[in-house]
Description:
Blueprint: E1 2-8, E2 17-23, H1 29-36, H2 45-55, E3 60-67, E4 71-80, H3 92-102, H4 107-115, E5 118-119, E6 126-137, E7 144-153
Antiparallel strand pairs: 1-2, 2-3, 3-4, 4-6, 5-6, 6-7
Amino acid sequence: ASLFIVGVMLSRKTSEIRMSVLFRDSRQIMSYLDEIGWSDDETETFASLIKELDAKKVNRMVLDFDVGKQIGKKIAVECSFYPNHHHKEEYWKELLDFLVKKGFVTPEKRDELLRFPGKEQEHSSIVRYITHVKIVYEPGKPIKAKAYLAIRHFLDAATTMMKN
């Protein structure tokens, strides 16, 4: 694991600091949470979710949590794939189907998300893609999932993975 981002959410009325830790091996997440003192997974819901995500080929997970006087109860995991294939990523459908099955995403939202990735024009260097899906866990509340989308311009399409 490695520290990915440390930030303050200026748009929120809180003095807590947001920590984001990148994991290439999801099996380390629960022991990491134990080490930092987060212990609100009595039903093993979050631990089970991490194992299921790993089975869906999610090989890049970023753990998000807030730190104040103590570790916040709400945590999240940002799911994506490494290496980043941008608009050509093949594993989003499997992950989104799983999220629909779990009741975290509606079938309509899944379908819209899967239509988003692509190129602006046939030979364009501007692509649309899903950057990650964040799954938010807060004890006693329903699990939520959010998708983060991007549009990117590649300066030299000939040297990127976008070349056909």
